[in-house]
């Protein structure tokens, strides 16, 4: 199983970015794909789950209405459209996967992780 995250970069408050997670070895639409974020000094177990997608979607309260997760079953890729970015969104973003349809927010429940893509938002 491999996940390849991309799309991070520098943004200003109010800007938009779209993150991509190319998945192999798991199936978008059948397995759960999530986006977590870590700020400097945080360990993986302290990562904050931003959103996940399987048969349904979940969003962290602070990103509801601003972020949209979607999946492309043909490309086996999950996207995170991030609008109205704020400095509080600055973090390393990781995509991760757990087998099947699981509604879990715990990093420990996700068994494969991508390498991360950095999002930096300036004021």
Characterization of the model:
It is a single chain. With 123 residues, this protein is mainly β. Helix content is 0%, strand content 50%. The protein is built from no helices and 11 strands. The chain has strands at residues 2-6, 9-12, 17-24, 32-38, 48-53, 57-59, 67-72, 77-82, 91-98, 112-113, 117-122. The strands form 2 sheets. Strands 2, 4, 5, 6, 9, 10 and 11 form a 7-stranded mixed β-sheet that branches. Strand 5 and strand 6 (57-59) form a beta hairpin. The protein is globular, with a radius of gyration of 13 Å.
State the shape.
globular
> Helicity level, as a percent range?
under 10%
Largest sheet: 7 strands, mixed
Write down the overall mean pLDDT.
97
Query: Would you count the extended β strands for me?
Result: 11
Q: What does the radius of gyration come to?
A: 13 Å
Strand-pairing-aware structural class: mainly beta
Succession of helices and strands? EEEEEEEEEEE
In percent, how much strand structure appears in the residues?
A: over 45%
Short description:
This protein is an all-beta fold.
